[in-house]
Amino acid sequence: MEKTLKELAEYLGGDLLGDGDVRITGVAGLDDAEERHISFLANQKYAARVATTRAGAVLLPPGAENYGRNAIVLGNPYLGFAKLVTLFYVRPPEMKGIMPGAYLGNGVVMGADVTVYPGASVGDGARLGDRVTLFPGVAVYDGAEIGSDTVLHANVSIRERCRVGSRVIIHNGAVVGSDGFGYAPDGRGHYKIPQVGIVVIEDDVEIGANTTIDRAALGATIIRRGTKIDNLVQIAHNCLVGEHCIIVSQVGVSGSTKLGDFVTLGGQVGVAGHLEIGARAMVGAKSGVHNSIPAGQVFSGIPALPHKQWLRTAMALPKVPELRKTVMDLERRIKDLEARLAAKEEE
Amino acid sequence: MEKTLKELAEYLGGDLLGDGDVRITGVAGLDDAEERHISFLANQKYAARVATTRAGAVLLPPGAENYGRNAIVLGNPYLGFAKLVTLFYVRPPEMKGIMPGAYLGNGVVMGADVTVYPGASVGDGARLGDRVTLFPGVAVYDGAEIGSDTVLHANVSIRERCRVGSRVIIHNGAVVGSDGFGYAPDGRGHYKIPQVGIVVIEDDVEIGANTTIDRAALGATIIRRGTKIDNLVQIAHNCLVGEHCIIVSQVGVSGSTKLGDFVTLGGQVGVAGHLEIGARAMVGAKSGVHNSIPAGQVFSGIPALPHKQWLRTAMALPKVPELRKTVMDLERRIKDLEARLAAKEEE
Amino acid sequence: MEKTLKELAEYLGGDLLGDGDVRITGVAGLDDAEERHISFLANQKYAARVATTRAGAVLLPPGAENYGRNAIVLGNPYLGFAKLVTLFYVRPPEMKGIMPGAYLGNGVVMGADVTVYPGASVGDGARLGDRVTLFPGVAVYDGAEIGSDTVLHANVSIRERCRVGSRVIIHNGAVVGSDGFGYAPDGRGHYKIPQVGIVVIEDDVEIGANTTIDRAALGATIIRRGTKIDNLVQIAHNCLVGEHCIIVSQVGVSGSTKLGDFVTLGGQVGVAGHLEIGARAMVGAKSGVHNSIPAGQVFSGIPALPHKQWLRTAMALPKVPELRKTVMDLERRIKDLEARLAAKEEE
Questions:
Q1: Which residues pair with C222 in a beta bridge?
Q2: Which of these is catalytic: A37, A153, A171, A237?
């Protein structure tokens, strides 16, 4: 694909600076770009690299120095970059149909242009929307539903009766609808509480590789639309994850916890069960959350505190050994003062 | 399925309160229940909801107010709930036989009524007990053994020569018998120590989605009967996990560590290698265990401490910045006292 | 297989002590060994067990007491043990060819003696070197390349265009080349930044079960030769992992971070993005790394500190509650001194 800079400026709705006839065939970072590339400045820290890049053009935020470069000026160059990567590099998935070695159960209902690769299998009574792609080794269990334009990568499992929306991407090995972890002690051991609920994944969700989302005991574990979940995340049974959340790798959310919309959980965060994390709350990487967090708050630490308090605490902790020495010294000095003052008082 | 309340009371061995002829067709939580449901009170905190639920009947603990509701009174309503969910909703897996697209190696020994789905494969000389179910994409390697009534969900791997007991459930993507992580430095890099042992999973164990249990270097990694392991857990080579343990999601147990019976490890706990965690010990979520823990103890924190000490410590840590200020202030005041007292003494 | 002790001494280049004609048929730990085994002393702590083992011979470090046992003395008995386990127990993988139920796309290029098990699939234009083994359920996507003598265990995914070197072992369920986690906020939600780079795994790397390594946004995520990665590890997009690193289970490394050669990351460590961890640096288990670490340093803790400082801090923290009491007591005593001294001064 080849586009002129003028065409790209129109595509992005940005302002052209310099030669609109420059021909662009791809996107690259400022340091790696060649003349045929358009690059982007997303962080002012790297502004000086605009002067030295070999890129044929650069996406710039308003007010940034262009160092004589051809440029497109737009409010959000990072978003512009994302859109151009999509334009230049992303092709719609190939429609390959039901390939030999794909397995369809009884009563499967399918939309148009579905692709099922060899070794993928679809259980009895499952429903697949239009243009669904199931890569090799995908297992869609009986009665599950997959919305249109959804892509399930190799070795994904969608368990019985779970529902996945449209334009969802699920990466390799992720599991939707495994049993929640629930047992009742019966005096001898642990009696399994059958997990007879489901998982509902709404539209435009993306789920990372080897992430696991457990089905509800009763009812549904729900991931609302637009939420993005990274690799190796655990979402336990009966959780409700709001719209447009960002859940980074290796997070664990315990059972029945509710996340509001636009919540961000940093990598390796753990959240206890039956909590509420309010809309637009953020939790710093590796934190342990044992209490609900109000909307809009930023928390960090183990156990999690308001972020600024955690920063102050984290700075102070390494000084505790020294602090203990100081206190012992003060104690000695006080003892000395007490003795001397008592002597003085007895005079 | 439909049962009268009287039949359910007999089934559970509980005492009937109210109308035994009420017809029940399912189980639901207090808030979601309809008239056809039986619900349950497992936590006194929700006792008032017994008054407002629309459920046709409620499982209650002895002494709980029934607010005029039809009820079954029994010692452990939560266990009763689990048993009724099983009664109403759980059906034995369908016997489907060896389906087209299933692969059996040479010399496979199989019991009665085995189900092998398309895309599952069983290696040479493997043994499957009666009523084993292998979902699509399951890979049972050469010489592995799977006990009767065991269910392996889609994309589970059981590596060469590993042994899985009866009535075991392994969820999607879990790996039993991957190589332990062992290398000997050889001056240039890391020389692989072949992991020639196996994994033994005893009867009635449940293993969560994408959990990994490594084979022993020599000998066996052992998971004893009745133990329940959640998703994304790592059990390293040569570990011994006792009977009826509860291991919550994203826990990691390092090599050669031994867990006694009925040990509970909370989510995201890490346990170092070559330790012993005594029977019925509990470790709080996200803790880091660097030393052995005696039987029956509760530990928490990083590094893990006796739980009450950890609670006190965790409460105190956010006050360290203020404590440092206090100490600096005291130091100033002591300096002042010292000067003034010295002046007084010189009078 | 049977070898005389003399043959083994020559094989390992060690010094024979005792009867060279003893016949050895296997390797076992000091406690488990029988007369037909050779055992090894890798840790002086267990030196006394050399006296009591039933092993027919023992690998000993120079200067260790042999208690009259037949022995081979060599600089690194642990490496010798690893080599003997390889000698006695490891057989080259069986060459089985392209088995029925294996799927090959168009234009696949293959070396000699490739094994593709049933249910494994190889995408269009992929390349497999000599003696590659693909276990059941492996998905090699279009255009991927797999080097000679590499083994991909069941249900491994190698995504489009990724490159895996020679003599690489990838354990079950691991994912190479899933999309990096990158989005640009677009005012309504999160716009996906297409991840159009690849992953490059160099020669002699080993990757654990269910580990995930994300493809680069642009360019490549790189794992250099000889590096060993344990189970359930997350390596984010655009990371560079140097040669011969050791990355223990459940570690997470965020985007664009660079690890030098021979770096060791303990279990459950988290490393933030865009950092540099210098060559031969070590990070203790469960640490959270928010800043770059210079070469050769040992860091621990959350947030990570130089290891010795972390140890001192971790020892001191449980004493903070008591320290607070001490400080309150001192404050009271100072107040008392101040009052008494003021009274004295007014006299």
A1: C200, C240
A2: A237
